[in-house]
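call fold(seq) -> tokens
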Amino acid sequence: MTVEWYRYLSIFHHTDFASILKRSLPDTQNILDELHRKYQKMPLDKRKTVDDIYHMIMVPTYKEEVEILRNSFQAIADAHYDKNRLFVVLATEERDRERALKNAEILSGEFGDKFGKLFVVEHPADLPGEVPGKGGNISYAAKEVTGKLIDKARLRAVPHATLSIEAKMGMSRNPNIQ
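ret:
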């Protein structure tokens, strides 16, 4: 059965989609157990740890003032993590181009050397079939960065994770969180 069929069942027959999908998927615990066994057999020099992971941190912005963004960027810079493994993406909107360019220039000057790489990507306005908003901005920026600015072969070769944060919220500054 396809995912669309399960959605049909859940919508039109008031059946919980998650429970239908769970019953149709392979036994997840067995898969995880097998992966764990393989990891335990792997030579220590081949195992990956959290310190091996590169992070792409997306900071989507639309009409935020530089002070708001500066707080978020400072929180990222203050993180207890190898800064060379942090790629920060300021995902701006063409609909707010003037402010975005000014903010990008200021933030690049202040934080350009604080991370492995700082990217600025402008999401074009009025893309066909796209609803304007944060989701489109993040998707566009991720495609631009991974497709053009970071070599795809290199990206596949190293463990990585992507995180999107609210520009207005920053990250935790709790010194106990590492």
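Confidence is low (pLDDT under 50) at residues 1-21, 170-178.
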